[in-house]
Design brief:
With about 160 residues, the protein is α+β, with helices and mostly antiparallel strands. It contains six helices and six strands; from the N terminus they run H-E-E-H-E-E-E-H-E-H-H-H. Helices cover about 35% and strands about 25% of the residues. The chain has a six-stranded antiparallel sheet, with helices on both faces. A hairpin with a 2-residue loop joins strand 1 and strand 2. Helix 5 runs antiparallel to helix 6. The chain is globular and about 45 Å long.
Length: about 160
């Protein structure tokens, strides 16, 4: 394992893939050491093509998340905090993919990417924007909310080890 992938693996809270097979959501863990940047994550997600591609949910350092959706050659992304690109290679690779400037020290923690990434799955851009504005939520809480709204909340909770209530 390279130093970069080892450093990322240490910072990853969890990484999961969600996909539908015959209309039923499946959620599985992804080994953090297999994802060093957006390209490696997208490649990993394509292993589970599902009925309409797959969705990757990665929480890093209880600080930010990356949401990636692949379908064939298409890759759509949402980064919860663009300022994470100054410290984390996976966030930097998302910023580069989006072709936006790297943040400076004075930049605010704002999302970047496609807020409509889940429009067709029942969570529109407005709802996503409202969720991302909830600055008191941790990334795992935001991703759990996303999973619940899209329809795989219970499977997500089980995959990331959230105790049943």
């Amino acid at each position: 394992m390279s130093d970069q992938s080892e450093a990322l693996a240490e910072g990853v809270d969890f990484a999961v893939v969600a996909f539908r097979e015959e209309g039923v959501w499946q959620v599985e863990q992804i080994a953090p050491e297999t994802i060093t940047d957006l390209d490696s994550l997208a490649t990993e997600l394509r292993r589970w093509p599902g009925d309409g591609g797959s969705l990757g949910l990665v929480s890093v350092d209880e600080d930010f998340f990356v949401l990636v959706r692949t379908a064939g050659a298409s890759t759509r992304v949402l980064l919860s905090d663009v300022t994470a690109a100054t410290d984390w290679p996976i966030a930097r690779s998302v910023v580069e993919f989006l072709d936006i400037p790297l943040p400076g020290d004075e930049d605010e923690p704002v999302p970047a990417g496609d807020p409509g990434i889940l429009d067709d799955l029942g969570m529109g851009a407005m709802d996503m924007g409202a969720l991302l504005d909830e600055l008191d939520l941790y990334p795992d809480e935001m991703l759990g909310d996303i999973a619940s709204r899209v329809g795989f909340g219970a499977q997500f909770d089980e995959a990331v080890g959230v105790p049943a209530s």
